[in-house]
Design brief:
The protein has about 230 residues and is an alpha/beta fold. Helix content is about 45%, strand content about 15%. The chain has a single domain, classed as 3-Layer(aba) Sandwich (Rossmann fold), CATH 3.40.50. β3 and β4 form a beta hairpin.
Length: about 230
């Protein structure tokens, strides 16, 4: 049994009424993995714009495993202190991580954020020395379109993230750097310039799926599955 845990910020937790890329990934794995697996995590809810809290269970399709470790407004610096206990408790084998935008936007610069990535990896491995991780760079977003210093931090962090993955990758606990499709376009793949719409959810899931298929032979090439 392979246990996948999505880790992320607002783009991963999603908001009330959405499917989320977690759902798209579950569909993909169910169709192509060919073995037993679970989607795990200590949290199950979506973010509710009306209440301003992560207290909604109003998924577009509630009939899927909703476990995750994601939070609206949370980043690498929030997840690094809790990932060890979470990986241990959830017995996670593969972490699918999409973080960084919040850190760079509100908390830390590129170098500090990369340091938190290293801490996160160390803490996850302390719980499971064989844990595998797929890390998604910060993807295109509306702030990077208009804020030049922020765009520079994003570019710097993504370079540091690639170097960190290369430095920390090891056979017993491999790290992968995922890439969203090069055609990811905030005008068509998001509903507000940052958060994915249905098309964007598929593209984020595709980024993770492609990395795992190419590097580990896990699953098949991604094909969008109708909701």
């Amino acid at each position: 049994m392979l246990r996948f845990m999505p880790v992320g910020d607002s783009m991963t937790i999603g908001s009330a009424g959405e499917h989320t890329w977690r759902y798209r990934m579950w569909q993909h794995l169910r169709a192509t993995y060919g073995g037993p697996f679970e989607i795990v995590g200590p949290r199950e809810t979506l973010y509710d714009m009306a209440t301003g809290a992560a207290d909604s269970y109003e998924y577009a399709d509630p009939d899927f495993p909703r476990g995750h470790l994601a939070g609206w407004g949370e980043g690498w610096q929030h997840m690094a202190p809790v990932v060890r206990e979470t990986v241990r408790a959830q017995r996670a084998d593969v972490l699918l991580v999409s973080l960084g935008l919040i850190d760079l936007g509100f908390y830390t610069n590129a170098v500090q954020t990369a340091d938190n990535v290293r801490l996160f990896v160390a803490e996850a491995r302390a719980a499971n020395p064989r844990v595998r991780m797929v890390l998604l760079p910060v993807i295109p977003n509306v702030r990077a379109e208009s804020d030049v210093p922020f765009a520079a931090e994003v570019a710097a962090f993504n370079e540091l993230l690639a170097k960190t993955v290369a430095d920390l990758d090891e056979p017993r606990s491999p790290l992968l750097l995922a890439s969203p499709p090069p055609s990811y376009d905030i005008a068509f793949d998001t509903y507000d310039g940052t958060h994915p719409n249905a098309r964007g959810e598929h593209r984020i899931a595709e980024g993770f799926a492609a990395a795992m298929h190419q590097a580990w032979g896990l699953g098949e090439p991604y094909a969008a599955i109708a909701s």
